[in-house]
Amino acid sequence: MVQGRACEQLGSPFMARLMPLIGQRLTRENAVGARCLDWEGEPGPSGNSVPLRLAGALHGLILDGSAPPLAGVYPPNASTDDALWAEVDRTMRVHETRILDWLGRAPQTNEVRRAAAIVAGIWWSLGEVGDRPLVLSELGASAGLNLSLDRFSVAIDGMAHGPEDAIVQLVPEWRGAIRPKPRPLNIVDRRGVDLAPLDAADPDDALRLLAYLWPDQPERLTLTRAAIAVASTLPDADDAAPWLARRLAKPRQGVLHVIYSTIAAQYFPESTRAAIADHLGKAGLSATPGTLILHLALEADARSPGAGLTATLWAGSVPKQMHLGRADFHGRWIEWSPKAADILFYPLIG
Predict the structure, then answer these.
(1) pTM of the prediction?
(2) Would you call 289 helix, strand, or coil by DSSP?
(3) Beta strand spans in 58-178 (E)
(4) Residue 94 contacts by C-beta under 8 Å, 6 or more apart in sequence?
(5) CB contact at 8 A, 161 and 155
């Protein structure tokens, strides 16, 4: 029920139907149902997200053409709850082996629309320090799709900014009285890290990226397919903290080093979050106008709606820290309202 309400708030009426059906009608009469219901640990959205694992497995069968009858009761087709569940139940039996395999891996998405908030944060920082080349380091990068953010266009009130031929076109709803000033993005180095990165060039990994998007949100599928087409950087497989320490070990002259994450920090162990904050703080102490460091975080916090967008900019030992605004968890809207932070923060969650 909790997951269904979250899906509804994020604009998916179909998932708002499917999640409660899974909770109410799943039984131990087949191996998939038994695996889900006997899950060790927290199965809900604050834990292992078992319903989303099952939903992703089912959607994957539709996307690769393995389950035409199931596709017949999925969007854009209409169906009753009874007809939908009957086909879900049949599919769990027919495709038992594959679904059980998918249940063993956590859901993994790479929400492309979140990149608009990061682009806005970079625009803000370049307004502070002047245009200069960029180095990108993304934490929790999944398949690294948002490492290509300079190949995306971002629209502000109907006007697109970015490459004229961009096939990834982000059109967030802008809220608030002011807008960020667009700046050119000149990226000279880009790397990302994830404990279990996906390779967007691998058909199986690409299918997983698409399967965890929601079936009644075709615009997300379209954007993700476009981002896969322009992706060029496979993230490194590692823990984010030691990886970042290596990225920060050698100061980079004449560039702005942008370290960023989008709805990822909540999945890092506390020890990793603490180590990341420590690495950023220490590197910031030695920053100069020639070796600039920017930390951007679009992460869940104690406020709503959406997630907080925070920035810490080091051009010397004393950082400039800002709350830049808020954004929808799926990047549908950005509320741009930059103001100085009232407390010092180095962590990923502002």
Answers:
(1) 0.93
(2) coil
(3) 134-139, 152-156, 159-161, 168-170, 173-175
(4) 67
(5) yes
